[in-house]
Each structure stands twice: as structure tokens, then as C-alpha cells.
Amino acid sequence: MSAEIKRPANGNAECVLHIDHLTMRFGGVVAVDDLTMDINRGEIVALIGPNGAGKTTAFNAVTGVYTPTSGWVSLNGQDITGKRPDEITKLGIARTFQNIRLFSSMTVFDNVLTARHLRRTSNFLTATFRLNLAEEKKMRQETEQLLREVGLFELRNEKATSLPYGKQRLLEIARALSTQPKLLLLDEPAAGMNPQETEELGEFIKQIKEKFDLTVFLIEHHMNLVMGISDRIYVIDFGKQIAMGTPAEVQENPAVIAAYLGVDEDEAAEAPADARPEARDGNEEVSPE
Amino acid sequence: MNNQLTKKKIDSATILSAVIVVCLYVAVFIAEQLIAPTSMLFTVLKKGATYALVAVSMNLCNGFTGIFSLGQAGFMLLGAYTYGILTLPVAERVNVYQYYGGGLVQFTLPWFVAMLLGGLVAALFAFLIGLPVLRLKSDYLAIATLGFAEIIRAIFQWDKLGPITNGSNMLRLFPNFNDFNIRGADGQVTVYLSTLVPLLIAGACIGIIVMLINSTFGRALKAIRDDEIAAEAMGIRLASHKRLAFCISSFFAGIGGAMLAMYQSTVQAKGFTTAMTYEILLIVVIGGIGSVTGSCISSFLFVAASEWWLRFLDQKQMIGGFEVPLLRNGFRLVVFSIIIMIVVLFFRQGIMGTRELPDLFRGRRKAKGGAKS
Amino acid sequence: MWNTVFPYVLSGISVGGQYALIAIGYTMVYGILRLINFAHGDVFMVAGIVMVYMAASGMPLWLCIPLVLVATALVGFIIERVAYKPLRSAPRMSAMISAIGVSYTLQNLVLYITGGLNQLYPTIPWISDSVTIFGATTKMVTIVTPVLTVILVVALVMLINHTKIGMAMRAVSRDFETSQLMGIKINSVISATFVIGTFLAGVASLLYFTNYTTVIQTSGAMPGLKAFVAAVFGGIGSIPGAVVGAFIIGIAENIIKGLDIILFKAGIISGPMGLATFSDAFTFALLIVILAVKPTGLFGEKTTDKV
Q1: Is C177 helix (H, G, I), strand (E, B) or coil?
Q2: What's the complex ipTM?
Q3: Which residue has the higher pLDDT, B238 or C5?
Q4: Could you say which of 3.30.565.10, 1.20.120.530, 3.40.630.10, 3.40.50.300 is the CATH number of the domain covering A2-92+181-275?
């Protein structure tokens, strides 16, 4: 495609996701403003910022839920700007949702199994008339394997929505992994978790990164988690990047501290998620008029 | 609890369910040979089979995929007309198409070919109408499909299409369910099949729908119903899967329409009204949105109640010299409506919720096991 | 040419006005509850039946008319309380199914009461009289309808823009939960919406059935659907949109009814085409086209789902 020639990645062969001058505008509101990012293979990169900074919007623009107003996104050097969410998932980006979106009528097992659907070779006729038994068996085996690896196997026959909150978040990740992604996007995976669960989640993310040869891109408010697992952190405010660097560098950055309303970073990290100052709460999702 | 998941095991509950279904078929076959063919029982079974298929096909769309389509009557009309037009014996065409010089179509197809074509025509229209309509949200989609059915109804009554559709006149004299009976040389029926065959047709079609629902595509459809955004994020292409469900649903609605034509022995466009779609929707609701078994049970109950069991409500009844108040023409439908409203308001799960026949046996066993441990 | 077309346009404006009054009920309810009130057309039909029975009981017409309007509003109120209120937190599909159930119930109830026979609508003096304007003879109701429609719509818009209940309605239609948190009594707002909507449907029934002279249990279905299409066409939730949409649909459908004659007199066709068959279908074709091209209608607002 000519578009790909015009828009090469940043030249780095290790670069998995490249976001180039991405802008997302809703009416008069600029939710993401000229954001440029690179995520390299095997990295865990976090995107942080106060509520309403445009983090989820950036995720949505990467995963195809929104079409960027301007700028572009490429995955492994391939332009994915403006592609549909399912196409992007097929190319290797999987995501979880901030407000859990499991398939509520299904069991844990079926939730994960359904996410394998995109790797099928059968069509509706061969599937209906059971000419795809080998493939179906393989899908089930892989799902079973995946559930064992993430520790949800014992709960496989439970209804997804009957799981405790923390397990539902875990299931969201398992479901995303089931699409066989190269890049995993986690939208506030620790939201609503207690400190111990959060710590376990951090370990878990590192584990799956190794096990599934992933690159991880996450949005998170729990600073302990972010600082503990991230290789690099991007900080945005009002849709604009205000800092980028290693956890240590970001923590020292005066612009970042200012963005968090002058709250000392350690305090912000210590405070539970819902006790943090919510400067512009409600703007996280900007919907056009 | 340690059963292998890798291969979806055919458990005893499934086998038991299959045995029950086969027994029912055998029972119908025997009953048909023994009981007079004019019995109300057979009317109910024939119409019930037709409605069951249509209800299940609607459930595939509305219950399993979450596409709230109200075009069912339109797709049935397409199936019924395709069937009627193509199976009408050439010799009879002059009589039926009396205002259109015998009509344009001058050949006759075997019933099963025509029925299949009926389904395909319905599916084709579903594909075309789906292009603009399936992008719409729930309630807009409902009203657009409903409008589509009305358009189809008007087109088929158009005088200029009379050579094909017979205009607003009735199509008749095509093969119906009674032609399934096997007759001896003297013209006497030797084996009665006029009830069994429609039940088998409906059963086979419903079986195919069930197999689709239990396949990987069925899971994808349920995912779309549960959460479109999550389904899309898991790589399920919404447009193609919705179109698939819509076309397959319409295909079977078309077959159901052909069966309705056979049941009624006549076809007339003005009968395929919005009210018919509503009726089928209410059957689906009573049975349980998202349960094939529920739709089937509810279809037979609905037909039996309206054609047979509740008929007495429409006639004046005397008990011990007193006339029972309220009973007169139309009261049956009032009682019906009240039952439906009670189900809609207080028993939103319907008869079956989202459970299927095998689940009934599984549920009981699980409860027993729980009591032991 | 104009002489041929004019009578159709005239009755189109008349029917359009009646559709407009029904459409307002749809659009207001949708604006607040996001519910297609499938039973609305049947409430309109019930208003006609109530009028028939009241007049038959010997009650003077000047008393019947206000009583019919009150009774209709009451029916709307009761339907909301019984059939929709219990489902407020249920999925949208449930409420829609309930609406279809109510529609089915009302039709069957009327079938039972009337025995399924056409009921002759009482003749309301003055508006049933014949008049001749610009060479076309018609009933007075044809002229009264658009005038009355405009007056009622203006009154309604003023009510919505300048009264407390109107402000509450606007708030609720914008954000259901927040207005509840702000202390707006949701239930009374919703009831008021239904009362206003069905009251206007009652007015529409007086005008419509004066024109068509008979009522049967299915009389409400088609006008109801068309009024709904009008509401969608104009952009659901928008009252001016519904009114404009209703007039367009009313006029279009009446012109199609006379299209054979119009085209014949214009020399375009040489024989009857039976195009009148499509007068109803046209409305729905228009619906599908508008939904495909501009799903939000002429005056509708765009909304986006949150992710």
C-alpha cells in the first residue's frame, strides 16, 4: 500500500507500536493533542495522567474504536490508522476495558474460547455441520491451556459475571490473550483492586509478558504498580504529552508533579485510587454533541 | 467436575433429550395412524411446527444475536409466495391466475426445491435490506425491518406484478401438507404422514439452527449480543456476523413461510401483517428469549391455546342454567393478552429463560450432587 | 395540473396535521425513556372507541369531547404506570416488548368490546361540514387540523421552554440519572410526558376519525406507525422535527394515493398503474432511506456510545 510507504515506522525494527502526531478532537474539545509515542518489543510502557487527560481516548484511537482526527498509528511498521477494531485485533493488538466488558451470559471458559473465533479457518457452513472438529478441538485445548496458565481453570464453568471483581479483571486479560496478540493494551487493570491484589497483578503482568512474548501498554492510576513494572512512562495532561522517561525520571519531573495538582508523587502513589484528587473527573470520555 | 473440556462431551442429558424428541416423533406417527385426521390435535401440531420454526428463526436474530428485527412476516411472505408460485401445477394456473391469463410462470417445481428456494429468496432479500438496516441501533432497526415487511406486503399486492404474484388475489391449489399422505391405488390413504412430515421439516431446520448456535459462530453471535464493543475488540467482525445471523434467520423464516402456505393451502399477501410478527415475537418472549427449546414449547402451547384449549372462551357457556359472564367472541384473545402481559412484566425469563432441554436434566442432577456433598 | 393535485395536497396537510399530533407523543416519550411506545397508535384508536361509546350513551357532544381527551390521557398515564414503570431498569428490549404487548392487549380488548365490527364515529358538527376552497370541496376538519396543530405545537413548545415541568422534561431527556440526582421527580415528569402525548393523540383522534368516520381495533396501527416514522424522519426527540416530518409524510402519501390520476391527467401514463398500493409502503421506504442516509433525522442530535 502506498500509505505504508509514505508512513514508515520510526526506523527502529524493534518498534512494535508507533503513534505519530495523533490528535483526537470531539467538536471543540481536543481529547488527545499531537501525541507521539513509541513502544518497543518486549517493553512495558505506561500512559499516565490525571483523570480526563485523554488516556482512554488514546487507547480507543489506537484500537480503532475512534478514527483519529489527524496523525496515524502503525503496528510493526504497518499503518493501522482508521482500520476497524476487529481488523486491528486480528493484526495483533488486544485490549481490556476500564469498565469491565465481559460476555455476561457466558462461562469463563466460553469467554476465552470466543476470543479464539478470529483465528478460525472454518466458515459458517463447515462450523454448523461440524466439519471443523479438529480446529474446534484445538481451540478448546488452547483455551484450557490458557486458563491453566492464568489460574482461572478451576473457575472455568462459572458464569463470567459471577466472579469476584479481581478475577473478572484477570479474565478480561485472559480473554485478550486468547486473541494471540503481540501487543496487549490494559486499560486500568488494577482499578478497584486492593493493594495486595494490585501487587499480584503486577507480577502477573510481568509473567504473561515473558510467557507470551508480549509488549504491554497500560493505563493505570495505581502509582505503585506503574512505577513497579513499567520500563518507560508517558505522562499526558489535557491530551498533550508533558513528560516521558523511566519511572525514576518521571517521578522527579516538576511538570508531572504539577499536573497532579501539586500532590507529592509519593502521597499520590500511597493514596487509594478513589481518594486521589479528581481534578477534571467526568471528562475522561468526551462525547461529541 | 473433572470432565474433559477439550472435546465437548455428549453427556447423558443430551442423549436423554434426543431420546425424548425421537419418542415424540414416534408417538405422533402412531397417533396419526390411529386418530381421525380431522382431530384438533393434528391442526395444532402442524401449525405449531410451522410457528416453532419461525419462532426459533426469530430467536436466532433477536435472542442470540441481539438484533431486534421485526421483519419476520415479510420474510415469511417471501417464502410462502415463492413456494406457492413455483409449485402450482401448470394445469391449475389458468384457474388461479384468472385475471392474469394464467400468469407468467409456466412450470412446476417439486415441493422441497420450491421450499428451499423460498428460504433462499428470503435470505437474499435479507442480505439486501441488511445492507442499510443492520448498521442501525436496536429500536431503529426494529422499526426499519417492520417497515420493510410492510413494503414487501404492498409490492406483492401490486396489480402490475399480478402475472407473477396474482396481485391481491389468493394463490391456491398448490401441494399442501395433505399431499404427504401416502395413498393406495384406490386413492385411499394408507399411511398418514401429513403431520409427521411438517414436524420433521421443522425439526431438521431447528436442528441446523441449534448446531449453528453451538458452533464457534454461535458463540460469536452471543458475544455480539452480550457486548458489541467487546466482541469487536476480540476480533469479531460485527457487520459480517450480524448479516450472517440475519440472513440465516430469514432463510428459515422463508422456509417457515412456505410451511405456513402448505398449512393454510392458500397464500394471500394481506395476511402477513405486523400483527403476525408481533404474535411470533410474543411466542419467543413467552418461551424465553435465547432458548430454542422455549420457543418450540411456547409455539405449540400458543397454537394449542388459541386454536383449541381456549376456544371455549369465545362461546357462551351455560353452567347449571347460568350463563357464565364475559364469555363471547374475542374473550380468548383478551385472556391471552393478559397472560402475555403478565409474562412480559413479571416472568421476563419466560418458560425456559436461556436454558435448553438438556439443561433441565443437568440442573436436577447437579442439585442432587450438591445435596450429597 | 394544479387543480388535480390540490385536493390531494389539501387532504395531505390535514392528515399530516393529525400524524403530527400523534408523532409528538412518540417523540416526547422517546426523548425521555428511549422507548418506542408501540402502543401509542392504539391509544389513539382507543380514544376513537371511547368517543363512539360516549356519544352512543346519549351524552351531549360538547361534554363528550373534553371527557374523551381526559380519558385518553388517563389511559396513557395508566399504561405507563402498569407496563413501563416496572421495566425502567430492565434492558431496552424488554420495555419495547412490553409496548408491543400493550398494543396487542389494547387491540384485543377493543376487539372484544366491539365484536370486531366497524364502529361509526359520531358526527361532530361544524368540523364535519363541507367547505369549498380554491375549487376543492372538503370537510371543515381539513382546514381546522393544520391550524389547530400549529396552535397546539406552539403551546407545547412554550410549555416546554417556559414552565418548570417543561424544564424538568428537558433535563430528564438530556440526562436521566443526573436529573434524578438533582431532585427532579422522574416519575411525575414521565407521567406528565405520557399525559401530554396521549392528550394530543386524543385530539388527533377527534380530527382523524371525523375524516374517516369509522373506528375498528386496527385503526390505530397504521397511523401510529406513520406518525412514528414522521418522528424518526424529523429527528426523534425533536418536536418541530416530528411536525415537519408528519406534514411531509401526510402530503406525500396522499399524492401517491392520487398518483395514477395525476399522472394520467398529465399525460405521462395511459392507464392505471395501481400506484396507490404504495401509499403506505412509501412511508416506510422513506424511513429506510432516511435511516440509511441520516439516522438522526432532519433535526436530530448525534449521540455516541461510551467505551
Answers
A1: helix
A2: 0.87
A3: B238
A4: 3.40.50.300
